[in-house]
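Incident log, support desk, overnight shift.

02:14 A customer reports that sequence design results differ from what the structure should imply. Their input is reproduced verbatim below. On-call engineer (initials T.W.) acknowledged and began investigating.
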């Protein structure tokens, strides 16, 4: 068998193997027999909740002023299983406090997260280190480049 035919045969066999592994994994996940399967199902179909704690214009408002509980329940009934909740660090950050947390904004965030969860949706919490409005497409800003900022961000995230 020449090299080209051998390479093609290997590619075909690898493709068949991958196909069967995907089928088997999907079956195990559906049956809840694969480790992490429940989590995978919970995070199967999601939407992004921008313009609440990220890309917001003006003051942070309660969740219901962004999306109603009725709408959250409708999303769940439509098959949505989770919401990605991006959070601009600046919206919950207070450099004057020892814990660096703004208690009023944090209370609004936690209240909203509890309501999302109470509607049967999981939450993918996505903390952004710098405001998208300020940084354009540089999502990390000085994170990893500015040692002082990086230390502050790690402290804050903890």
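02:41 Re-run completed on a clean worker. Output:
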């Amino acid at each position: 068998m020449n090299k080209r035919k051998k390479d093609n045969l290997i590619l075909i066999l690898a493709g068949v193997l991958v196909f069967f592994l995907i089928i088997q994994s999907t079956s195990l996940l559906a049956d809840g027999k694969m480790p992490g399967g429940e989590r995978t199902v919970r995070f199967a179909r999601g939407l992004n909740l921008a313009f609440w704690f990220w890309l917001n214009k003006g003051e942070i408002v309660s969740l219901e002023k962004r999306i109603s509980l009725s709408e959250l329940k409708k999303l769940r009934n439509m098959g949505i299983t989770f919401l990605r909740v991006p959070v601009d660090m600046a919206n919950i950050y207070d450099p004057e406090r020892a814990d660096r947390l703004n208690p009023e904004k944090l209370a609004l965030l936690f209240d909203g997260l509890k309501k999302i969860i109470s509607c049967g949706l999981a939450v993918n919490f996505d903390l952004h280190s710098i405001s998208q409005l300020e940084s354009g497409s540089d999502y990390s800003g000085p994170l990893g480049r500015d040692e002082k900022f990086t230390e502050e961000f790690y402290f804050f995230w903890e």
